[in-house]
Amino acid sequence: MGNIFLGLTVIIVIASFFSLIFRFFRQPEILAYILTGIVIAAFPIFGIPNKDFLQSFSELGVTLLLFMVGLEIRISELVSIGKTLFFSSIAQIVGTFMLGFFLTAIFGYNLITCFYIATALTFSSTIIVVKLLSDQREMHSLHAKFSLGILLFQDIAAIFLLMFLSGFSLQTGGFISLINFGLIAVKAALLFAGIIFLSRKVFPRVIEFVARSPEALFLTSLAWVFGLAALVSSKYVGFSIEIGGFLAGLALANTIVSYQIIAKAKVLRDFFIVIFFVLLGLQMSFANIFEVIIPAIILSLFVLLIKPIVVMLTFGLLGYRKRTSFLTGVSLSQISEFSLIMIFLGYRLGHIDQNTVSLVTMVGLITFAVSTYFITHWKTLYREIAPSIGFLERTNVKQEVNFENDGNLDDIKGHVVVIGGDQMGESIVEALEDKDKQVIIVDFDPNMIKKYESRKVYRLFGDIADLDIQQRAKIDDAKLVISTIPDLQDNLILLKELKHENRRAKIVVMALDAKDARQLYKEGADYVVLPHLAGGRQIAKIIIDDELDKIEELRSKDQNYLN
Known about the structure:
It is built from 24 helices and six strands. It folds into three domains: 1-49; 50-392, Na+/H+ antiporter like fold; 404-529, NAD(P)-binding Rossmann-like Domain (Rossmann fold). Mean pLDDT is 79; it is low at 170-176. The chain has helices spanning 2-24, 29-42, 51-71, 75-80, 82-106, 111-122, 126-135, 142-166, 175-210, 214-232, 241-252, 258-282, 289-317, 322-331, 337-348, 354-376, 378-385, 424-434, 446-451, 467-472, 488-501, 514-522, 531-544, 550-562, and strands at residues 416-419, 439-443, 458-461, 480-483, 506-510, 527-529. It is mainly α and 563 residues long. Helix 2 (29-42) runs parallel beside helix 12, helix 7 packs antiparallel against helix 8 (142-166) and helix 7 runs parallel beside helix 16.
């Protein structure tokens, strides 16, 4: 126990130190955690913690991370984009594999080694992508849903591939593995059907009873996610804990307490996921690094540049805007933890040598680091290269226009632009409708746009940071612009644009803390909404005006929204 406690202490202290440094320089903290593992492995003075114990901790983090992703996604959402996900996933896997195989063959590797390396380049990291998109509150955006769908498709393909390869050691043939391959396909179909049934018929009633006690809700949720993840990853089913965690969350996504579960599990998830990235750094292999450095750099460029282009071209051909294509492609610009697992398996089976392991490990480290910057700063990156990637967008863009009104925006003037239709945005739209104001609602969540189909408002799907969306919303002719999103960068971009185009419009934006609010006022905001202040003032007004009966009215409205 003492060694375990000491190992965790070392990890937490070093990770905290690097995290503060990276945060000071505004760098992604994931890289600080991976660096922690590399440093501990490189300097024996720190002592190498028990890797088996850390592996268990990291699996808990992965399970909770995917569990929370599942909680935020409705099955109907995946079904609605299922056709696109299927074709885009197949195109990405096949296209990336073929190009990667050809590139690897140029370096003179044999066919088996080319197969392993090309396959490793094909898969992307579910854990890194989900963590970064969650931190940026992008999980409800269309490109995040596409990225997640492709990643889950890749994970399933990777699991089947690992099973298939494990049957082809020097001692066995492939017959038993092929039988298991078919059995897992049947089990997957039954498992998913069971999750759909539970999510619609069982859990809404069970959770309603359990939710009366916050402690019982939290413990029951953990019991469900860990229990299902253990079952799914057992030898009787054969899938991974990633898929088990995701399915556990998906089953509870339709319940009324899904967001409450997310809030309670977040801190626990963050702790365990740190262990995952530290362990990833510990397992990095840099043997024979100088022999593979040149191929590693070239293959890393392939993953960072060519692989996203394959995805972008696929989505462009399917009729999506260049922005959605670009963001989805950038999200997949790294290799996967499954890539490393597969390479280690190939080495144990005698299919590949140590140089290949070192090569893929180096590609992993480079792409993990660089893609983290890509995803973290994708808005800035997109603005810089948007003019040069027009070829990614078809002239007739069908798929995303369907989320908008058929109404003509050309003649609209003196209107109100509301950015973000959820929560605060919905209340504002209701008030504006009562005043018969012309309203354009802008949101990057397609389901949120669909929610306003019956409203007398113009709906515009997209991100206000996109210049094209700003023009289509006609913010230069607007009387009032209200941003209900707390993203500081988006709000600063909006203020900068309005400062040049239309200083007559009143600008109201939202901030989560005083520091952001001060910066927004400095950049020209007319009013900054701080939710905790606004809520306090509303209650204070009710008390001062002696209108306690309004509490029941507010409660009724809030419950209607929550349901």
